[in-house]
Design a protein that fits this description.
single chain, alpha+beta, Alpha-Beta Plaits, seven-stranded mixed beta sheet, rod-shaped
Length: 333
Amino acid sequence: MSATELLKQNLPIEPDLQNFIGFALTAAKQLGGNCFAASRASLALVRHLRNAGAASGYPLPVRLVLQDLTLSALWGDSNEFFPIARLKEEPDAEIVYKLQRQLQRSTEMGDPSLLLKRNMEMMRFFDEARRRTEQELQDMQRTLEERQAELWETIRQAETDPLTGLLNRRAFDDKIGRAFKRTLRQKGEHVSLALLDLDFFKQVNDEFGHQYGDAYLNKMGRIMREHIRTDVDFAFRIGGDEFALLLFSNEVVACEKCLRILADMGHKVSIGIYSISGSEPEDLSVEGFFNHADKALYAAKESGRGRVMVSRCSKRQPEGCTFHCGEEPASCL
């Protein structure tokens, strides 16, 4: 026998729950079920329906179904049948049809005061549900922000040199690639890479000790930060006494900044600079970008240290060009 739905109803308030139990007992009697057994089953059914949210303002949907000689209840999204009464024989189709119509008319007859109470309870439930949802969303947003802050702090620590507070080699490898690609895409933009080595740093460590050497490295980091734009340019410690700057400016501005760093460090730093713009040759790579700056640094050391050397691409500048930054000259490779 296929399932026949006798009644479908929502149970937001207590009278709705009691009415449904009454309808279930009426159906059990008219279909020839055991009324005593149905009454006992209805007590357990009330507990299950309350646990599911009936009579709490929540419009719990419930159905009364006849299937395989069993009168059962189903509620919510569950497909599990709760048996109320078992029939001795299959009822006549006319009896089932009349019972359906009777139960339908019973639910359609609305008591205005009951309808008002039902609406008020449902409004209260939805208002409470809305407040709970808003609070849950706020809690989720706060938790998300905390997790994001923890993530960014983890990333920051992973990319920071613990001694100087500058960005480390890992961050350098990431940001130089990003800066290189961005500059080649954007016409009119420039980025300069400056590589900086402390001159004779091993002798400083050997003569004055590692504690003094650490303070010297910290001084270098502090001075580098003083001469760059916060949140625009980047300063890195990429090795023991090796540092780097990514400056979003052309070689003239980069040279001026590096000369000020050189002066503040007592002219005991060798610096090599290379700058690119959106008009670079297509075969230039990020490795080539780094190598040009490294060659300029090597030339600064070879020519006596304590100076700034600027490497320029011959395809962009006349061969043999020279320029000066401030009062101190900067050589051009």
